[in-house]
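Data card: per-record layout.
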Amino acid sequence: MKFDNILEYIGQFGPYQVRIYILVCLIGGPVAMNSMAQVFFGAASDHWCAVDEWDQEVKRCTDERNNGMMEDYLSCIHKYRNISIPVAVDDNGEVYYERCSKYEIYTNWSDYMIVNQTTLTTGCDVGWVYDRSMSTRTIITDFDLVCGKKSAASLAQSMFFFGVLMGSLIFGVVSDFVGRYYSFFFAVTAVSLLSLANAFVPSFWMYTLLRFFIGVVNNGSFILAFIIGTELVGPSMRNVAGIVIEMFFSCGYMLLAVLAYFIRDWRHLQLVIGAPTLLFLIAIPFVPESARWLISKKKFDKAEKIVLKAAKVNGKSDKLPPNFIQELQETDTSVSCEQGNGGVLEKTPTLIDLFRTPNLRTGTFILMYNWFINSVVYYGLSLSTSGLGANPYVAFFISGAVELPAYFLCIPAIESPLGRKYSISGFELIGGIACLVTIFLPLGAWRTTVAMVGKFGISASFALVYIYSAEVFPTPVRATGVGICSMSARVASMICPFILYLDDVWKPLPLLIFGSSAIIGGLLLLLLPETRGKPLPETMQDGETFFTKIESREREMSTRATGASDLGRTGGIYNYSYEA
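The structure for this 580-residue chain is written out next.
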């Protein structure tokens, strides 16, 4: 007997599992807010060189803003900027004030300021003045991340995503060693305390360091919530459980937009994000250790107590075999004997084995590319909502909201006649095409709408590619295959902030990269096998066979005028047979 057999008796997703599942999934909200907070922490604001001679006048302008007189504030600021800051013309013919230079000789004080007739300019030697009409304080204004230090904000976000990568590696190993329960609550406590500490950092480098550690434990808490949630349920509900937790992430995403709208100081916003996470410690008595993990560690007595409690809460105590623990122990013993039969164990496949044979190697590279691109486009669209021409808070809220229908649609798409790969490919193509169309639209409602269509498509494909990858790799290297794909996604998220800064080179360049890359990824997926309704590969040879005929499909696709007629097709080269 295995644990999945026990769930058939006590219920695959009964009241006991639902209660615990919701508790652990709630962490998705704070995780999303920490992941996306940089959008508001590092919000760009107009800036120009500070001038000593009118420092007090600028403070008076700021007082007008603080008193709610925004129009007077803007008029006041414009007057002083107009007489001391050079102007320039951008590629679109629009006049703007220089942000990194000022007139070198410009004042002649009497009753008011008069600019001398000079074209000599100098750098911002005494700092900058910031337009605080949208945000009263950001890391940009606190640490002067402008002009020569403009890319530093991207570095901070990349360090956060590097922490996410490390969290994936660390907490997977730690949770296997000490258990899901202790790892989860350590991560939740750490992310809360680090978030609170981050609100008081005195320097940019301290901020960047703490963001790295927040990334480690933030992602660790989400991974462990995912593991606990999916290990609770039976096979028929596992895919649904894996997708629903993403909806909690989306809700946190939307909540961040609301909080940021009312809290315009990044330090206060960080406190509001971090403090409520401590409330999760209240859940300690209600979240048990994973029974699957306990069984894998031969801690059958503790596992028995959890199973009996689950059966009682689900009202299935009478369905549970009285000797189920003995049957679990016998199964575990027989498996151990089989593995040791003959005294020689078969060599365990490793990461290198994914790249030894041609078809498995090609399939692995295609999946790694797709994870990479899904991550780049997802975070690229998420982190750039302020550049769509709409209200940045509204655009960010919509960006989170479109994920909910995307995830809802994933649930029927998993078992639809189109299958996994065509569903992923279709969603990814929608995302890529929408990014390219966005390039040609003016700033405003239409540009925002089409960009959100792209976000919808890429959110759905990102969720589905995880499920597909977990099915298509052979069993001995399944976790390794998903792990290397996940690592490529984390690397992509680290690179993404710097791709966004390519708009300084050419405005449409980031969207062009996102769109074209997603389209290529969607088309490459069509070369891979379908997994819906197919026996999954159990050995390395099965895996090589499962990925076979990729070259044949490449030749076949190149001779077609269109592949649309193949959607939903069964039979032909897409049918594979397997030995039991």
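Known properties of this structure: The chain has three domains: 1-44+143-332, 47-133, 349-568. Residues 21 and 229 are 5 Å apart (CA to CA).

See the next section for split statistics.
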